[in-house]
Design a protein that fits this description.
The chain is mainly alpha-helical. It has one domain: Orthogonal Bundle (N-utilizing Substance Protein B Homolog, Chain A), CATH 1.10.940. The chain contains 7 helices and no strands. Helix 1 crosses helix 3. The protein starts with a helix and ends with a helix.
Length: 135
């Protein structure tokens, strides 16, 4: 598994309890990073994702609402919602990552961690968002 994919998985593991039970971000980060022996660059990218998502959460959530027709944010499953947040953070705030990579990685996360319909839902929402946010 590539380092960035692992970073995205770890970021998802950090964001999940923050979203589900309002866990403390620093505590969640510390727990996940200390319990996974990973290279420094994986830790750095994980930190970047988590902090980027959390500091831009309001804007990211608004983008999700616009892209997920007829779905309230609360109705989207926790895993899918946080996968979308990671991908949207990358699409909106990281010019060094091709959008197609961010979408593909999100779909792969959804296949691994979501329900049987998660990957198609995530792909559809991100496809709409990507078209609306072309630079």
């Amino acid at each position: 598994m590539g380092g960035r994919r692992l970073s995205r998985e770890l970021a998802l593991q950090v964001l999940f309890p923050i979203d589900l039970v309002n866990a403390n971000m620093e505590d969640s980060l510390k727990y996940i990073l200390e319990n996974n022996q990973t290279p420094e660059e994986v830790k750095e990218f994980t930190l970047d994702i988590v902090k980027g998502v959390m500091s831009n959460l309001k804007e990211i959530n608004e983008v999700i609402k616009r892209g997920a027709d007829n779905w309230s944010l609360e109705r989207i499953g926790n895993i899918d919602r946080n996968i979308l947040r990671i991908a949207i953070y990358e699409i909106l705030f990281r010019d060094d990552i091709p959008r197609s990579v961010s979408i593909n990685e999100a779909v792969e996360l959804a296949k691994k961690y979501g329900t049987e319909n998660s990957f198609s839902f995530v792909n559809g929402v991100l496809g709409k968002i990507e078209k609306k946010n072309k630079k």
